[in-house]
Amino acid sequence: MGRTTIHDIAKELNTTAATVSRALNDHPSISAAMKEIVRKTAHQLNYQQNRIASSLRSGKTFVIGVVIPSADISFFGSVIHGIEMVAKTHGYNVILFQTNERYEDEVQGIQTLLQSNVDGIIASITKETSNFDHFLEVKRRGIPLILFDRATDELGVSTVVIDDYKGAFMATEHLLQQGYTRIAHIAGPSHIKIFHERLRGYVDALAAHHIKIDEDLITYGKVSIESGRTCTQQLLQLQKNRPDAIFAVEDFTALGAMEAIKESQWNRPGQIGLVGFANEAFSAYITPSLTTIDQQTALMGQEAAKLLMDQQQAEQHHEKSPQKIVLEPLLIQRQSSMRRQTKQKTAS
Amino acid sequence: MGRTTIHDIAKELNTTAATVSRALNDHPSISAAMKEIVRKTAHQLNYQQNRIASSLRSGKTFVIGVVIPSADISFFGSVIHGIEMVAKTHGYNVILFQTNERYEDEVQGIQTLLQSNVDGIIASITKETSNFDHFLEVKRRGIPLILFDRATDELGVSTVVIDDYKGAFMATEHLLQQGYTRIAHIAGPSHIKIFHERLRGYVDALAAHHIKIDEDLITYGKVSIESGRTCTQQLLQLQKNRPDAIFAVEDFTALGAMEAIKESQWNRPGQIGLVGFANEAFSAYITPSLTTIDQQTALMGQEAAKLLMDQQQAEQHHEKSPQKIVLEPLLIQRQSSMRRQTKQKTAS
DNA sequence: CTGAAAGCGCTTACAG
DNA sequence: CTGAAAGCGCTTACAG
Fold it and tell me: Among A50, A69, A52, which residue's Cα sits nearest to residue A116?
C-alpha cells in the first residue's frame, strides 16, 4: 500500500535516493548502466514521480495558469485548446480559471494561481478591469505573464492580439473588389479599442481606393442581432446614397443586418453585400452564408503559449523584453458578399 | 526578496510556525486573540500560502483533473465551464487535459494527473478507448473518478449523462403534436450508444401514439451535413408514404436535411417538419431556425463537479456507491417544426 | 560516478 | 492554548 517512492527503488538496488533521483532525471554524472537499472526497477515497481514534492524542492511546477472570461464562449474555448496543446508538448499542465467578466474573480484567480506557484500566466482581462495591481504583483514576483486579445500596454508584458484594423481593411476592400461602391459600416461603441480599430480599417480602406467617406453610411450599433437589424433598417431608408453593401463590426450584428436585408425590397442575392467579423460558429451555416474575418483563435492560444515557453527558458539567462505578436486576420469568402451569385454550397 | 513564509510571521510575533499555521487554518485550539493578530500580521507581510508545500504535507492538493477530447468543441467548452464554476466555489482548481480523441493521449493525461496528485478526475472518454486500465489505476489509488457523456458501465464509477432516449422521444412526440404523421428518422451509426438510444426513443414515441413503424422512413447517415442532405434527398424520393417530417439524429445532419428540403419542391414553410438534436451554436440562427433538443451542457459539468465534491467529503467516512445522474433533455421549439408558420423572429 | 545531508514550506501527532 | 519535532518526497550543493 502507498505509492512507490525513490526510497523504495533505492532500497531495492542498495543505493541512495539521490542516485535514483539523478538517474531518473537523466543527470549527466550518472553511469549509463546505473540509469538503465534504475529505470527498469522504477518501471517494475510502477513508480510515478510525485510532482508536488519535486515542485516544492525545485521551485518549478511545470504548471501554467490560464485566466479567461469563460470557457463557454467559443472564442476562448478555442484559445485554451491552442494553449493546452502547446503546453503539453513542453511538459506543462494548464490550470484553468474563469472570471465570468468579474474583476473580483480575476483578482482572486491570479491570487490562487500565485499560491499554486504556477510557472507562468496567460490571461485575457475582463471588461470591468481598470486596476492592474494583481497583474503587477505577478510581474513583481518574476512570473512570466502573457496577455491575449484583451490586452493592455499599461503592464509592459508580451501580448498576442489580432490585427483588427487590417481585418476591417480586408473586409472593406473585398466588398470594393466585388464591385460595391457605397459601403456602409455598422460600428460598435468607439471607446472599445477593437471596435475603433475596425472603424479605422474601414475608413482607411475606402480612402485607399479614393472613395469619399460618407458620414451617413457610418452608424453605431450595440453589438447585437437586434441592433444590427435596426441599424440596417435605418441605412436602407436613406433616400440618396443608399448603401449597396454593409460591413458589420461583428457577426451577430451582421446576422441582424442579414435579416433586415432579407425583409427589405433589396433582398435579391448579390443586391446588398454583407461582411461580418469573427467567423462565429453559425456564420457558415446561415443563408446566405456569411463572409467574415477569421481571428485564428487556436493560433492565438498557440502563440501565447509559445511566448510563455520561450520566457521559461529566458528566465535563467536574462529578462526578455516584452514581445507584441499581431496575428493576421483571414478573409473567409462566402455567399453574402458575392456580387454575382455563382453556384455554391451553403456550408464551406 | 523571497516570499513571506509562516516562519517570517512567527518570528515577527515571537511564536512558532506551528501556531501560525494553526491560526491561519482556523484550528479550534487557537485563541481568538492569537488568530486575530496572526491574520493581521500575515496580511501586513503580504503572506500567501504556498499550496505546494501544504499539499505535500497534507496529501490534499485541492486540484481536480478534467480530461476531455477538446476544449474547441462547444459541448466540452460548456461542460468545463460548469465544472470550473462549481469547483471554484469549493476551493478547488481545475487542471485541463485534452486528448484530441487519441487513446494514447488519454492514458498520458491520466498519468500526468496522477503524478500531480489530483484529488479527483472528471473525464469523457475518447472514441478510440476500449482498454480501461488507466482508469482502473485511478480507482486502485482511491482517487474519485466521474465520467460524463462518454461514459461506460465497465468501471463502476459515477456518471453523468443526458437521457438520449427521452430527448428523441420528446422530439418525435413534438412533431406528432404539430400534426405530422409520417415522420422519418435519419439515424447515426447504431453501434454508438447515444445514436442507438435516439433511434429507440423515436421508435417508442411512434409506438406510444399507435403509429406503425415504417422501415422505409428510417435511414442511417454518417452524422454530417452532407450525409443529412443525401439521406433527405432519398427520403423525399419515396413514392408512397413520403415523409412529412424528419427527426435528425443531431443538428449537423438536420442542417443538411434543411438544405435538401429547401432545394426540393416541398420547400414551403411548415410543409416538412424538422427537428435536430444538440442545440448547436448555429441552430438558432439558420433559416428557418431549427427546433432541437438541448443537452444542458453546463449543467452536466456542474453535476459532475458536484458529484466529485460529494465524494471528497465521503472519502473520510465510507466509500459511496457509484451514482448515475441522468439529465433531462430540453425541447427547444423553433420554426423548423412549426406546422403553421406564425409570425416569429428568426433568433430565439 | 555515487553518497550523506540539508532543506523546500508547510501540517500534525505528541507533550505539556 | 502553544511549542518542539518529525516528516511529506523530492532535489541539489558539497564531498569524496
Answer: A52
